[in-house]
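Deliverable D4.2, example record:
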Amino acid sequence: MSKGPGLFSDIGKKGKDLLTKDYISDQKFSVSTYSNTGLALTSTAVKKGGLSTGDVATQYKYKNYVIDVKVDTESNISTNFTVTEIFPSTKIITSFKFPDYNSGKLEVQYLHHHATFTTAIALNQPPAVDLSATVGTPAIAFGAEAGYETTSGKFTKYTAGISVTKPDSCASIILGDKGDTIRASYVHHFDQLKKSAAVGEITRRFSTNENTFTVGGSYAVDNQTLVKAKLNNHGKLGALLQHEVIPKSVLTISSEFDTKDLDKTPRFGLALALKP
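Output generated by the structure prediction step:
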């Protein structure tokens, strides 16, 4: 694949990951195994709100083909079939979920040095179509996406965004929810190895005149330990500690507090991912 401006979904992703990735409020345990033939098997158990669920995910890779199959405790089977470079600079993804036969989707991605295009068609009756496009370079990109409902002939969503990326920082602005919300974020890395970073994000919803401002950061204590924290203007404080207990196996401890209501019970999460 070419190194171009990236997909539209990449705009604002760095800031979003810093503020949301690995923050959990439940107990999760997963075990992964791999074979030399390209087969990967992951079993996951989750306990949330007193309820226990689990799933088994299998991935098989062969040359430019990837097959993902996931089975949950309710016997739902999700499948994804990905083919890269079947045509130059393209990726094709098909997905189905059984027994929900109307959940099928076909997605085609085209990545060029200065533009990317994505078309996703829901394989139900009548089909819905999602389109996105991004133009620019790895340093600056402009993009937009839209969802079209063929039955009513109306757009179900439209979003536009811009991102500017430098070696030590990344800024983005996204106008979404049919123009009702605007979200701006800025990420700054304090060292070349990107062991420490700070992020600020502000979101405004015009229909309710509501503003949400969130600041956060991450710091790699050493090669095995990472700490993260975030706080928004509504008083929600989140923190996590992530430690590589053995090579490739990670323990994550996460918590969230309401600083404006200290009598409220804090939320805690625990995750352990074991990999060979």
